[in-house]
Amino acid sequence: MAIAGIDVGGTFTDVFIRDRDRDSWVVHKAPSTPPDFSRGFMSGLEQALAKAEVSPGEVERLVHGTTVATNCILTRRGARLGLVMTEGFRDVLYIGVGWRPRMYDLDMDPVEPLFLAPRRRSLGVRERMDAQGQVVTPLDEEHLRGVAQNLVEEQGAQVLVVCFLHAYANPAHERRAREVLNAMYPELDVTLSSDVLPRRREYRRLVVSGFDGYVKPVVTSYLRGLVEELGSAGVAGPLHIMQSHGGVGGVGNIIERPVNTVLSGLAAGVIGAANVAASAGFPDCISLDMGGTSTDVALIRGGRALISNDGSFADYPLNIPMIDVQTIGAGGSSIAYVDEGGALKVGPQSAGADPGPACYGRGGEEPTVTDAGFVLGYLNPETFAGGLDLDIGKSRHVIEKKIAKPLGLGLLEAALGIQAIVNNNMAQTLRLVSIKRGHDPRDFALIAFGGAGPLSAGKLAEAASIGTILVPPAPGVLSAMGLMLAPIQHEAMTSFEVAAAEASLDELRARFSELDESCRAKMREDGVDPDDAAVEYRTEMRYVGQSHELEVTISPRDAQAIGGASRAFHDAHQRAYSHCDKDAPTEFVTLRSVHFKVSEESTLLAESAANGAEAPAPRHRQACLDSAAGLEDVPVYHRDDLPVGFEWTGPAIVEQADTTTLVYPGHRARMDSFRNILIDVPVGDSAHT
């Protein structure tokens, strides 16, 4: 029997097949097929199964990381929404919070996601709750029916999003509204803000709920179609989907709350990186996932990815639990250009998978980072991405025409400039997740993966003063491997705005009990016995009078749970802001229950004993690492030929099916017992000044 992980990115679809019977695994990369990503999904799976000599019927479980929800929002091709608001508050979306990231830009576009629904599709209904959840004005059901009829029958709304004032404190009106709307339009999806984000701040609650409704028809259609195609192909095992918080869930649960998949693709890579790095003895690391379109960077402490409840997506607030990942538009397909001021820029525009870099020969006329890699000799056209039919002459032509000549540079200088710019862009993001958050990068290893990550890692480590680089055995498909390492996980949240001094332990336990029952139902739907799941309890707290919260763990079964949570909050405040006031009163804001079942594939990398074999003599290829030296002979190894314990010094190139690793001059590399490549980067104290 086998398990498959499939991560669909903007440029490539990565497949990882784990054959349990043979205790082996196979990786495969196939081009993605936007806008119909299911074609690339199915063809990549079929090719990988053939390579692994595994029949579709032997796949007992398939885990998928998807960018469908992400692309739906970015391309603004979601459902036609109708917003049902409390009367007098129909303009919540359009007013926003009054935030202007560029204060003096008179032509700045609105930062609110106004594409969700124009004002004419945001209507108020007579009803009102106060902040304590007490009814001020009963729900006027006749008025609600009239509003719904206007939105659906006159304005063509496909999904209704109900966001009433203070519904987080008492969801009764929203739930009754859903009953009325379902009776009127049984086939229409209805999203309730109290289900999606049961907490105060109505603008943020509306945005997350709006995104949920916006992507729901698209995600539902994609996943149901995928299930049908898998069934037709003979795959009988269940399909699980990666969620933004790093856990996976079954299709039925995902369709119910699809907004949780907005960062699905990003989360898988961090989960895989944390597992591989911890196994190799580096529980504190920074993951660098550089693909064809973007680069994702995340901080990992103690072998676990950091989770944020205060995240964002494309500058829009997305206050759901998600792995804290910083994304930059820098990848192998990022386009290089000379701007109007004569400066060389790289990204965030991307050539994607189609037409892709110029060397793909699919009509791309813009130079990219990948084109520069071929011109410099770093990449091998015979093995790149499974042996695509490439035209390296086209790479030279577009870089010469659009970069070298306009800047008065030689071809190699221009290509090196492209590499330097994209590396500098990524180095800024590394500093954002480390130095700017109070972490010393010298305390972390850099785990480089993705199709392009190991190629740039050396220069990034030098720039960020990181002394160790880890390149996992299958870096190009680590995200696909991470999918199989992720736990089946479900969460539930509720508002609980009570001062710690006034909180009742019985009430706290009762609220967590309600959350637990919701999570147990979801775990059962995914085929997990609730008794087999581990449980964590968390609460957001703040000092009385603060407007922002910090999340800490809590043990509701402990008689000292409330006092323990307050002490944990003081400690968290000290870590986050370098100060705390242990005499100041605290208050609870939200409660969250997390149920998860650890993957049976808790690790996919077995430790190997050093075999003492000598590495074969390397081949050599002309490559340029310095403009003054030009092209020079650089040793080239095939990774499968390198034995455990082998050591070598850069410059050197290591090739494998899914990526290329560049060991820069002066860097020392070795193959560890997990078959990771560990690279020691010389970093002096002067680099930190």
Task: Please give a structural write-up.
The chain is of the alpha+beta class. The chain has 16 helices and 35 strands. The strands form 9 sheets. Strands 13, 14, 15, 20, 23, 24, 31, 34 and 35 form a 9-stranded mixed β-sheet that branches. Strand 21 (334-338) and strand 22 (344-350) form a beta hairpin. Helix 10 crosses helix 12. It is globular, with a radius of gyration of 26 Å. The termini are far apart. 50% of the residues are buried. The model has no long low-confidence stretch (mean pLDDT 90).
List the helices and strands and how they pair.
Blueprint: E1 2-8, E2 12-19, E3 24-31, H1 37-52, E4 59-65, H2 68-75, E5 81-86, H3 92-95, E6 122-125, E7 128-129, E8 135-137, H4 141-154, E9 159-163, H5 172-184, E10 189-192, H6 193-196, H7 202-232, E11 239-242, E12 248-250, H8 251-256, H9 264-279, E13 285-290, E14 295-301, E15 304-305, E16 307-308, E17 311-313, E18 316-318, E19 322-323, E20 325-328, E21 334-338, E22 344-350, H10 369-375, H11 392-407, H12 411-433, E23 445-449, H13 453-464, E24 468-471, H14 478-485, E25 488-499, H15 505-525, E26 534-543, E27 550-553, H16 561-577, E28 586-597, E29 619-624, E30 631-638, E31 647-649, E32 652-655, E33 660-663, E34 668-671, E35 677-680
Parallel strand pairs: 1-4, 4-11, 5-6, 5-9, 9-10, 13-23, 23-24, 30-32
Antiparallel strand pairs: 1-2, 2-3, 7-8, 11-12, 13-14, 14-15, 14-20, 16-19, 17-18, 21-22, 24-35, 25-28, 26-27, 26-28, 29-30, 31-34, 32-33, 34-35
Helix pairs in contact: 2-7, 4-5, 9-14, 10-11, 10-12, 11-12, 12-13
